[in-house]
């Protein structure tokens, strides 16, 4: 099969590109140097009347003969085998198309699941980090409490002794004030 050059005037895509570039030039919009060079080549090819065309025709002939004997049997067998081959080709083609669609859907599903799992994993790790920080703060608070209790342990005895000595005097004062 012959390949039509990209700047051939007979190529519809080339005609469309030339129209767009000419439209830009007419409206004084910027044109890239590549587009300008392409348009120059296109217009030169168009002025020379250069074009490429090729006509391909394909015909298939089948003959059906009504007959008897072994020739008719061979022809009928050949026709059956040919039709069976076409049917199998069609089934195989449709099966492959179905497999491609299923594969595309499966790929999308796997991508979605992977993205979702990543979100869940990130959330899970963040939750455990927060739990760890909270637990570390609890342990630090317990240590500070134990240290404070140990520091105040000796002071409580002095305070308790002082309170025990002052309590009878306070009660006497309260009793006099109540009368």
How would you describe this structure to a colleague?
It is a single chain. The termini are far apart. The protein has a domain at 1-49. It contains three helices and no strands. Helix content is 78%, strand content 0%. Helix 1 (12-26) packs across helix 2 (33-47). The chain is mainly α and 179 residues long.
Topology, element by element:
Elements: H1 12-26, H2 33-47, H3 70-178
Strand content: under 5%
Rg result: 48 Å
**SS field, number of helical segments:** 3
Average pLDDT reading: 83
Strand-pairing-aware structural class = mainly alpha
Largest sheet: none
- Specify the helix fraction band: over 70%
- N to C succession of SSEs: HHH
Tell me the total number of β-strands. Answer: 0
Distance between the termini: 127 Å
Which segments are poorly predicted (pLDDT under 50) over 5 or more consecutive residues?
none
Shape: elongated
